[in-house]
Amino acid sequence: MLGLVFTVVPLFHAGSTVMAADAPAPATVAAPAPTPAMDPAKMRERGQILALSCSGCHGTDGKSSSIMPSIYGKTTGYIESALLDFKSGARMSTVMGRHAKGYTPEEIHLIAEYFGNLSKKKN
């Protein structure tokens, strides 16, 4: 007979001042930060890595097949301006403001360049 064992791990103990929110954040793998000496190929690669998180909603290469707006075909300037507006709160949204706040202006520029140049490539 197969028996299952469940372990319950509390987020905090009654009377304790240590809560789950106090725990260190898990390590994440990030693309290397841009530097002035970084060559253009590395910058494009970093933009592509940063843009991966966009595909969950906006589709592969920004080509949405749902009600989410497509990013594909938009200019670099348009995408960068929109993301910066989301980040500052100048452009209202339900989710995008929270996403954009997680990126530096430099990272936003790299993401915008990545998507802005996709439609310029020959298929």
How would you portray this structure in words?
With 123 residues, the chain is mainly alpha-helical. It has a domain at 38-118: Orthogonal Bundle (Cytochrome Bc1 Complex, Chain D, domain 2). Helix content is 39%, strand content 0%. The chain contains five helices and no strands. It has helices at 40-51, 55-58, 76-88, 96-100, 105-118. It is globular, with a radius of gyration of 20 Å. It starts with 39 loop residues before the first helix and ends in a 5-residue tail after the last helix. Keywords: Electron transport, Heme, Iron, Metal-binding, Signal, Transport.
Report the top-level CATH class of the domain at 38-118: Mainly Alpha
The number of E-state strands comes to 0
Classify the beta-strand content into a percent band. under 5%
- Which architecture of the domain at 38-118 does the CATH hierarchy give at level 2? Orthogonal Bundle
Order of helices and strands: HHHHH
Give the overall pLDDT as a whole number. 80
Kindly state the percentage of residues in helix.
25-40%
Largest sheet: none
Shape: globular
Which topology of the domain at 38-118 does CATH recognise?
Cytochrome Bc1 Complex, Chain D, domain 2
N/C terminus separation? 58 Å
Low-pLDDT runs of 5+ residues are 5-23, 25-29
CATH superfamily of the domain at 38-118: Cytochrome c-like domain
Please give the radius of gyration in angstroms: 20 Å
Oligomer: single chain
Secondary-structure-derived class: mainly alpha
Query: Helix tally?
Result: 5
Domain Cytochrome c: 41-119
Protein name: Sulfide dehydrogenase
GO molecular function: electron transfer activity; heme binding; metal ion binding
Keywords: Electron transport, Heme, Iron, Metal-binding, Signal, Transport
